[in-house]
Specification:
Spo0b-associated Gtp-binding Protein, Chain: A; alpha/beta; GMP Synthetase, Chain A, domain 3; 423 residues; six-stranded mixed β-sheet
C-alpha cells in the first residue's frame, strides 16, 4: 500500500535527576557532597532511508520516544545519557508541526536531522556546596525532553511529472523510457500510486520521471485519485501532459487538456504556470484526422511544444526525451521547502502566569513555573525547604496571596504538597 501522509507524536528523553549523596570513607570525617549529575535524555533524529518509498511504517505506530537519561549516583558518578531514537523516512519527506502547519525540515537535501532535543541532566548536590552550605541535601531534577506532534508528508523528488487523464498511456510511456515496471492494463485507474523511473541519457546524465495516477475533473476537490497525489507534482520542474488523440474513447482531447490544467490551477495556481510539454499519444491509431489537427492547432496557439507520439510503438519518443532534456537544462533545481517553524521555549511560564484559586480556607497554586521549581526541591531537607520559601517570596507569590486575602493558618496546596501559611 502506498502511504504518503502520516501524523506521529515524538518525544525526546528526559534528563536524569542529579543525586544527593555524601562521601563515606573510613577515617574521613565530613567527606562532603559527592552526588553525580544525571545523564542527558536521548534525541529524536530523522534519517533518510533510500530503500523506503512510502510512509507505510507510520500507519500503525504513532508514538515514538527516545530513552531517558539515567539518574546520577554517589561518588561523583554521572548517569548514562539516554540512547537517541533514529526514525527512518523516505527521501522527499516534508516534516511539519501539526498544530501550526509550519515546516520543520524537508528531508530532501539532508541525511539526518535532530527533530527533538533530549532534556539536560540535573546537577548533583556537589554543585550546591558553598562555604555556608557545606552539606546540601537537595539536587536538581532533569529537564523534560521536547515533545511535539508532527505531520509527515511525502512529496516525490521527480524532475518530470507525467499528468493526464486515466488510461492515456502515462504508465506505458514511463515503462518505455525507463526501467520502471508499472502495472499496465486497458482500463481506467490501473495505476493506484505514483511510479518513479530513472531516464538514462546517452552522455551519462539522467533525470527522474514520475507517473502521477489519473487526475480527473474534480480532482482538486477530492474526486478520483488525483486529490491524493496532486501533491507529488509540487516538486516537478517540468510536466509532460499526455493526451489521448486516438478518439478511441470518444473524448475530446482539447477538453481533456483544459480540464487537467484547470484542476492543477484549482489545487495550486503555481502548478498551472509550471512548464509543460504536450505529448499527443496513440497517434498511430488516431481515428479522426480532423480532431487531431484541431488539437494540434490549439496546442500551438497556446504556445506549448507538441510531440506526436505512440508509446506502444516508440514513435516520437526519442524526440520527446531530447526536448525534455533540453528544457530541464534551462530550469532551476527541484524545490526544497524552507523551514519556518519556530520552536517553543523549553521552559514556559513565569510567576505571573501562576493560577491561584481559593476553596474555603485552601489556596491552590498551579503553573509550569512552580511545577519546574518543585522538581528541584528536596522537601525532606530543611535547607532545601527554606530555599523554596525564599524563591516564592522573591517571586512575589506570597504578595499575591496576601493581596487576595490569605489568612494566617490557611492551607496552601501545590500539586501533591500542602503547607500552612503563617505571617
Amino acid at each position: 500500500m502506498f502511504v504518503d501522509k502520516a501524523v506521529i507524536v515524538i518525544k525526546a528523553g528526559k534528563g536524569g535527576n542529579g543525586a544527593v549523596s555524601f562521601h563515606r570513607e573510613k577515617y574521613v570525617a565530613a567527606g562532603g557532597p559527592d552526588g553525580g549529575d544525571g545523564g542527558r535524555g536521548g534525541d529524536v533524529i530523522l534519517k533518510v532511508d533510500t530503500n523506503m518509498s512510502t510512509l507505510m511504517d507510520f500507519r500503525y505506530k504513532r508514538k515514538y520516544s527516545a530513552n531517558n537519561g539515567i539518574d546520577g549516583g554517589g561518588k561523583n558518578k554521572a548517569g548514562k545519557d539516554g540512547k537517541d531514537l533514529v526514525i527512518r523516512v523516505p527521501s522527499g519527506t516534508v516534516v511539519r508541526e501539526k498544530e501550526s502547519g509550519a515546516v520543520i525540515v524537508d528531508m530532501s537535501d539532508k541525511e539526518t536531522f535532530r527533530v527533538a532535543r533530549g532534556g539536560n541532566g540535573g546537577w548533583g548536590n556537589k554543585h550546591f556546596a558553598t562555604p555556608t552550605r557545606q552539606a546540601p541535601r537537595f539536587a536538581k531534577g532533569g529537564l523534560s525532553g521536547e515533545e511535539l506532534e508532527v505531520e509527515l508528508e511525502l512529496k516525490l523528488l521527480a524532475d518530470v511529472g507525467l499528468i493526464g487523464f486515466p488510461n492515456v498511456g502515462k504508465s506505458t510511456l514511463l515503462s518505455v523510457v525507463s526501467k520502471a515496471h508499472p502495472k499496465i492494463a486497458d482500463y481506467h485507474f490501473t495505476t493506484l500510486f505514483p511510479n518513479l523511473g530513472v531516464v538514462y541519457l546517452g552522455d551519462g546524465h539522467s533525470f527522474i520521471m514520475a507517473d502521477i495516477p489519473g487526475i480527473i475533473e474534480g480532482a482538486s476537490e477530492g474526486t478520483g485519485l488525483g486529490h491524493d497525489f496532486l501533491r507529488h507534482i509540487d516538486r516537478c520542474r517540468l510536466m509532460i501532459h499526455v493526451v489521448d488523440v486516438s478518439g478511441s474513447e470518444g473524448r475530446d482531447p482539447i477538453e481533456d487538456f483544459k480540464t487537467i490544467n484547470e484542476e492543477l490551477k484549482k489545487y495550486n495556481p503555481e502548478l498551472a504556470e509550471r512548464p509543460q510539454i504536450v505529448a499527443a499519444n496513440k497517434c498511430d491509431i488516431a481515428q479522426d484526422e480532423e480532431l487531431t489537427q484541431r488539437f494540434t492547432d490549439y496546442i500551438k496557439e497556446q504556445g506549448y511544444e507538441l510531440f506526436m507520439i505512440s508509446a506502444a510503438t516508440n514513435t516520437g519518443i526519442k524526440e520527446l526525451i531530447s526536448a525534455t532534456t533540453d528544457k530541464l537544462g534551462e530550469l532551476p533545481p527541484v524545490t526544497i521547502y524552507e523551514a519556518d517553524y519556530v520552536p517553543k521555549p523549553r521552559i514556559q511560564g513565569t510567576p505571573d502566569d501562576l493560577v491561584i484559586e481559593k476553596y474555603d480556607d485552601v489556596w491552590t497554586i498551579e503553573g509550569e513555573w512552580i511545577e519546574r521549581l518543585m522538581a528541584n526541591v528536596n522537601f525532606a531537607d530543611h535547607e532545601s525547604r527554606m530555599y523554596f520559601d525564599r524563591v516564592l517570596r522573591n517571586a512575589g507569590v506570597y504578595k499575591r496571596l496576601e493581596d487576595m486575602g490569605i489568612q494566617d493558618e490557611d492551607t496552601i496546596s501545590i500539586y501533591n504538597m500542602e503547607f500552612e501559611y503563617t505571617e
